[in-house]
Amino acid sequence: MHSEQILKQYLNELKIQPSDSLNIDQEKSFKKQAGQSELILISRNIGKINKRNTEQQRTIVVTSENLYNIDKKSIKRKIQIQKIFGVTVSRSSFEFILHVPQETDYRYKSQENRDIILFYLSISLKLNNKDGLKLYLVDQEDLQQFCLHQKTTDLQKQVALHPKTKLLFLYPHDFQLQYINMLNQPTKSLNPNHKITVLFINDKMKFRVKLEDFQKNTIISSGSLNKIFLLTQKNDRQKVLVLKTIRSCDIDVDLMEFFLKNYEVEPFVEQLELCIRQTDLIHFFFKFVKGGDLFAHLQNIGSFTEIQTKYMIAQVGMALQSVHEKGITYGDIKPENILIDEQGYIYLTDFGYGKLRVYQECKKQQNINFSVEYASPEYLRFGDLTRMSDWYSMGILLYELLIGISPFYNANQDVAIKLICQGELHFPKGILISNECKDLISRLLQQDSSQRIGFSNDFKEIQAHPWFQEIEWAELKLKKKELPYIPSMIEGTLIQEQYIRMEYLSDDEKGWY
Q1: Radius of gyration in angstroms for the set of CA atoms belonging to the chain, rounded to a whole number
Q2: Of the listed 332, 341, 350, 458, which one is catalytic?
Q3: pLDDT per residue over 400-421, tens digit each?
């Protein structure tokens, strides 16, 4: 296979692209000295520190074959990737040393670009069949003592300068999490709460994460298990996230980590941005969805039209399909667990509580924290929770969005359970609902789960129902459809108070430790 094809295939596997931000590939002077098969992975400006401890502005270019040190447009040095031994990295500053056996080392410094350069260097080393990026991690801010500024043929003399710490190996496929967590290792802190482990990060190009980087601003929901906080990133006030925290003892951590390793962004599921473990706590950071939850909208307008409801249910169905394809039962469909954005697109939420409680339910350790009116009869009778329970709950949701109340609602929980298990479904006479819609609701609310629509072929069977005939599924999944319900938003306002209620933070809630 051609080298360019190999590189593109490998970058696709990593879900990244080359990062030639300085457009070096367009520089004629560079292309004259680069090999024809050479492909640029990254170009960045950086500070080079010489033997007199003076910082000079340079450009680093890492290609599929070489690393270049460039002064303006002049190539000062070209190092074959094969010759690079490894790097020394400071945990206390932004310095690093590039170690090149039997040649001079390079000492660099860059707050913005150091980590991403090392990541792409690990990719180039992998492409050249090297055994990972070798890395010394040290606490010293100034790395002068580890850098050989004069060329020598005495390899032992050069190696003697290397730090006396363990040599670590980093590979591209798990570089990011390993690197972040190595930098986060506490050095002198005696407080165990300061130790964090990053379990997941959605931004492939982010290499530093600390809890102190985030500021809790307000409480936007007090759920049955915990409070939900709105956060901003201190160095980027436009970056708004939602925080949900659970105790590690409440979930199966091994299964959660397996899920995170296979996590993919889905169009109609709340987007996870970051997951951090802090001793016995697990923090989930989600993308903020501006319109709040569907329950607030339902309360605001009373009920939705049939066409509005149809597009909402279509999205819920696609979200559940993606969850089921991963072998997971969602387990807690209700308006409070469905978010809506400013374009009217919806997202299943309750990732940390819904899906992970299902893991526990599989181990028969605890019950799902259902709203009873959404629970399926087989769950109430026998404790059976399967994907068919989700389709039953979606039928309840469909009814409630149209009518404004669930079909078996009763303030007395025992009576509500009895009504669900009897399954006598009635449609109010004063509300116009199409026969196709009534048929779908009836088939979703079948008492016998094996007779319920979706049993044979999950959501594909439901999609084929006549009520969804007009839906263009591909267009909807790509979010190119102008939806019939678009929330009313106050322009220029981050938190829409008509949909999201805010609570003030206590002093204890403001901190992380």
Answers
A1: 28
A2: 332
A3: 999 999 999 998 988 999 999 9
